[in-house]
Amino acid sequence: MPVFPELEPWLRNLRDHAISYIRSVRERYAPIVEKSIEWIPLREGRRGRVAAVDSSFVGVETRLFYVFVVQSLALCSGGDRFSRIARAGIIDYANLLAVKSGRVVKRFSPKNMLSFYAQALELESISSIAEGAELALLDGSIITFLMYRGRGIEELKVYRVGDEELTPLQVWSTKSTLLKRLARITKPVFVAKSSLAGFYTGGSMPDMEILEALRLLGSRRFATRGFSEPRQLGREELIRASRIPPELADSVPFTAVTVTYARFVDGGPIYQVTIPGSVDSDELREILERIAAWSPAGYPLPLESVHKLSKLTKKAVRKLLTHYGVPMVSGREAIE
User: Fold this and answer.
1) Cα 287 to Cα 291: distance, rounded to the nearest angstrom
2) What average pLDDT does the chain have?
3) Rounded to an integer, what distance in angstroms lies between the CA atom of residue 22 and that of residue 250?
4) How far apart are CA 27 and CA 44, in angstroms?
5) Which CATH number applies to 39-331?
6) How far apart are CA 82 and CA 129, in angstroms?
7) What angle do CA 92, 98, 102 make, to 5 degrees?
8) Where does 143-244 show beta strands of DSSP type E?
9) Is 0.85 surpassed by the pTM of this model?
10) What are the two backbone dihedrals, phi and then psi, of residue 33, each rounded to the nearest 5 degrees?
11) pLDDT at residue 330, rounded to an integer
12) Domain locations in the chain as residue ranges
């Protein structure tokens, strides 16, 4: 892939702007964060038995429909139990259009709707093997797992998987049921690598952006292994954050969610951690110390393992689709 020499000065300029922006974030928000966020150090903890899950999916846009392949893998530490789920299907473009009074008012992204579906497979995978595990680790935020996608197309059969046709409402209801079941089996812990939430800043700035800016500019306090004093989201706040419509409020599986930000090694990246229910600082510290014991490089090894082992590549999926004769007319054939 050629890289034009004309790009070089723009990259240097980009570097300077990025550094300047990070400094401005610290100048604006560091005094507020230093006063409002208590940072609690993590001690050495024991690993314990954990389960972890992740999924991977590839979607191919054709002129007729959106073809997708998704697979999910859940493992229990020790390797004695695992669950693999794989699905392939199509998403009908026509069923991604929310229509009101004869007019299209919203077009939904097939990729976002596929991510919504893949989360249901993750919950199905880990629920089947989590018995006996002290923690169940999931990649992402509980808020995004509960996020309702498909307002306006709830009853449309968006997903065609084998002989089954599913609506967004059916997928969300399945996820809600599986989340409740998982919380009865073990302690689900959601670890998100990115988030735009501003629970500690009143929404004026993403919490993660500020905490990372402080680390990059040498704040010792927030760069050490530890976590922020937790915040509790009540049922109403959780419903608003997850954009759950009022008619589904009674189906929300939890009355509260605990939110914190954690570093599992000194100088490592920050992660948002969300846990169902109200968890106090002492219990949360014990949970995070177990996760830190599994995170020698800063990210939990069980999550890293299932991510790598479930990973799909677009090239491999395209070869499989071609091998099985799946029609994929996209208009890009001449340049690929």
Assistant:
1) 7
2) 90
3) 42
4) 33
5) 3.30.2170
6) 6
7) 110
8) 159-161, 164-166, 187-192, 226-228, 231-234
9) yes
10) -65, -45
11) 57
12) 39-331
